[in-house]
Amino acid sequence: MIMAAERRAEAPKIPEAEGVKKDHSLEALDRLSQMLAEDMQSVNRIIVARMESPVALIPQLAGYIVAAGGKRLRPLLTLASAELCGYRGDRHHKLAAAVEFIHTATLLHDDVVDESELRRGQDSANTLFGNQASVLVGDFLFSRSFELMVEDGSLDVLRILSHASAVIAEGEVLQLATNNNLRTSEAEYLAVVSAKTAALFEAACEIGAIVAERPAADADALRRFGANFGIAFQIVDDVLDYSSREATLGKTIGDDFREGKLTLPVVYAISRGNDVERAFWRRTLENVEQRDGDFEHAVALIARHDGFDASLDLARRHGAAASAALMSLPQNPMRGALAAIVEFCINREF
Amino acid sequence: MIMAAERRAEAPKIPEAEGVKKDHSLEALDRLSQMLAEDMQSVNRIIVARMESPVALIPQLAGYIVAAGGKRLRPLLTLASAELCGYRGDRHHKLAAAVEFIHTATLLHDDVVDESELRRGQDSANTLFGNQASVLVGDFLFSRSFELMVEDGSLDVLRILSHASAVIAEGEVLQLATNNNLRTSEAEYLAVVSAKTAALFEAACEIGAIVAERPAADADALRRFGANFGIAFQIVDDVLDYSSREATLGKTIGDDFREGKLTLPVVYAISRGNDVERAFWRRTLENVEQRDGDFEHAVALIARHDGFDASLDLARRHGAAASAALMSLPQNPMRGALAAIVEFCINREF
């Protein structure tokens, strides 16, 4: 395996990376985590307790991927949404853990599907424990997530999260059909992203309003916030897979290119390219015949056609829609913190 | 691929196959299906309607595996249990479909885990559609199953089936640890089987009592029936993987041997074998270095140590416990039909 430091030295200089400007909102996620630190500790305790099993491999593997860190963004969204809605109990702790379990299960299955070797800068679980265990422990966490919801006892929450889970799976299957398919349109890309990523953001936020027993209008507003935030988040993720420096992103860059995934920057570059460029994309993404220097050439083509800027523009528009959705909700510090993490996620470099 | 007819010609003559005696109860499953034919039609309509998705690959793949037939044993158990308890509504249709979706999802994931090429005598879904789609469509069906339960609205049912799903995953992971492990004991084998197979039989039966709103004692009796039936069923399945003729079983035989699975007939043969035999098992099951004639030799060794008979004895004891559990329940034709399918499953040759 190539060490991260070596990879960094090889990373191409990408003009668009400077387009992603650094600003003070970069600390917004840390600030949100601090505001919710006590709640998050309870969530983490539930996560650790409920990944237990007499079958030792389960807590080992689940512990590996859960402990590998990650931003815990989705459970934070549930906690923040509940708090924004004025909720004062502790039901949201269990539900935030359920959300994280669904996310972790999809990560485990994604890595099997993508044959990823790295996840958050470390060996992915399937590399370390094998595909079989990753599939099955994903199933276990998914089931556990529903057990947690059943203990909570809200059929509304169960409805929202079981539906989100089905939509996520649909999105992942739809993505299989767009892989290696040069005809993938912006609309198809957005359909994939809305389902595979935004559906869980949306559900994580909505259940905050449900536990707080707020009127449907608030639940709708939080859904719209989550859905738009999720889309913005995934677009930026896909831009970074071409433009981030590996050590910063904490996972290999160029994965999407190597797997022939049709993400937004590429969709734009292909639609705006000439026949020679089209032949390049066909060879590299459709036939997945790749040589040294292809990735750097792909980055240059995307840049030439403003694929990064256009992608980030769309991310910003969804970010703005997310922030706008917050406006009908109570004005309190949590509302400001949620608006700030949208900014943070759009402007992040990792 | 070798055709089924060619494989049959190669199948070894196994004395134990005669030990599994044919009797009149062989038609019991057909009889149960006929008694519940109308209900089962409703269940099938729900199954077909709810595997729908705008993502075409999902109904294609799900339709392939669901249409591939199978015995629909688990949804039949839910229908039969509800009817045995005197239930007269139609809630059990949706719940039986939910049970079948959980089963189908685990089959899809199992085939990925086992790298099986055949399922019910046809190409397995992962052979035809790829591992990626099988993992994701399994996730979709699993989510759909919970959506069906949420629509039904019983938290008791949700609790029972989410718990069963977690236990199934635990059983599958535990099985990974026993694979290629000659030290697997009868107790460990039974722990795997109780979890990976019997847990869903148990839950499928129990929810019949739940929809019928019967007292806890009846739900307990149906649990015990399902648990013991499930264990008996799986033991017989594992015996047949060594002794059935391929064309009859509808899947490849010898799969467990080729994958180095420590099923009960082998567990007995190993514990009763000498050092030379132990070396044979180590080479074939632990190191999975297999040559022509090894499978036939394995069958002969199991037979020499009464591994088939001892396994079937244990299956019969669990079958008897299953029938005994039925005794506290109302005496009606459905009770007789359930007792008969236990007999059928123990005496089946496929």
What does this structure look like?
2 copies of one chain form a homodimer. The longest helix of chain A is centred in the middle third of the chain and has 28 residues, at 216-243. The first copy, chain A, is 75% helix and 1% strand. Chain A is built from 19 helices and 2 strands. The first copy, chain A, has helices spanning 4-10, 15-19, 28-35, 37-50, 57-67, 73-84, 91-114, 125-129, 131-152, 155-178, 186-211, 216-243, 246-249, 255-259, 264-272, 275-286, 294-304, 307-326, 333-347, and strands at 118-119, 122-123. At the A-B interface, α7, α9 and α10 of A face α7, α9 and α10 of B.
CATH homologous superfamily title of chain A: Farnesyl Diphosphate Synthase
CATH topology of chain A: Farnesyl Diphosphate Synthase
| Share of helix of chain A, binned | over 70%
The ordered string of helix (H) and strand (E) elements of chain A is HHHHHHHEEHHHHHHHHHHHH
End-to-end C-alpha gap of chain A: 21 Å
Please state the structural category of chain A: mainly alpha
Any low-confidence stretches of chain A, pLDDT <50, length ≥5? 1-26
Total strand count of chain A, please? Answer: 2
